[in-house]
Structure prediction request, 229 residues.
Amino acid sequence: DTGVSQDPRHKITKRGQNVTFRCDPISEHNRLYWYRQTLGQGPEFLTYFQNEAQLEKSRLLSDRFSAERPKGSFSTLEIQRTEQGDSAMYLCASSPDRGPSLYSYEQYFGPGTRLTVT
Amino acid sequence: QKEVEQNSGPLSVPEGAIASLNCTYSDRVSQSFFWYRQYSGKSPELIMSIYSNGDKEDGRFTAQLNKASQYVSLLIRDSQPSDSATYLCAVNSRVGGKLIFGQGTELSVKP
Prediction:
């Protein structure tokens, strides 16, 4: 079990450019989540998938953001026409469909992608 | 009212003391509760999960849940300088769904 991986770890881009991030979940984890974290705040939910189905999107996710998980394995998060306010740590997490108890779906985070928009 | 509230700290305790971290949540139907530890510049690391009222112990960590009071806490016994980090409380209102995080409490353990 190699854990959740994310690529790239750091991305610096100019305002107006498009960026794409990749997340590879823990193998056999069917659920994959994207969060965004800014300095001094807890992570904020963006979207999540069960297998290839996108089950929920946050109202925070403007139409410049799109996420995919085409084969139910890795996922990509694309931000179009980046703005300085998009600068943040983008975190991916995965969980199994069932945890130690009926109500647990423990989420494990990857190392994150730090985005800086100049 | 924020959905999940934590004191931002910093909370400073001497080495060997008990650190007590608190969290309240607003959604009464919340199902699962988690504590994550986050070192500066790193991603959150799951340290405890709790689903039913009462205490759950794991090594030096004890999570406490009181659903009637909508309150979750984390106790760290015999605190070590390596415990210095931000502790995030997270709540899951729908099974398998998104986590709602508090802003985190910064803990500093002084040698």
